[in-house]
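Bench notes, afternoon.
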Amino acid sequence: MAEAKRTGIARRLYGKASGRSRVTMNRLKILVTIVNRAKADFYMDHIQSFGVNMQMVVFGKGTAPREIATAMGLADSDRAVIFSIIGEDKLRSALDSIEEKFKTIVGGKGIAYTIPMSSIIGKSIFNFLSDNRDAVRRNEA
């Protein structure tokens, strides 16, 4: 009896009883991009083209000693750290595009990596961050 009750709950949760498949959500990641401060606006605009609705930039200064930075051709140590919330479905194309920009733009080298997000409170916030404009409009109506 207890086993039947448990499998009934699992069927309702995962939609197996009615033939529906489990809904998969677009997981979100934090994309961290570190670039020259002079290129921050360019990279923020470029990343936004991948459906990113929220970005934050923090300005900083490199910590390498001036002699080492000069020897490596990194005379300018002013950096911008861009934090972007991006959907996992658009992440691969965004990272590939950013990597291509790092290679082709003069003075546009940088570092990009991701951090997984484990939870978000609120359906409207999740829909906004995952660039689900239709769901956000339905919730506002």
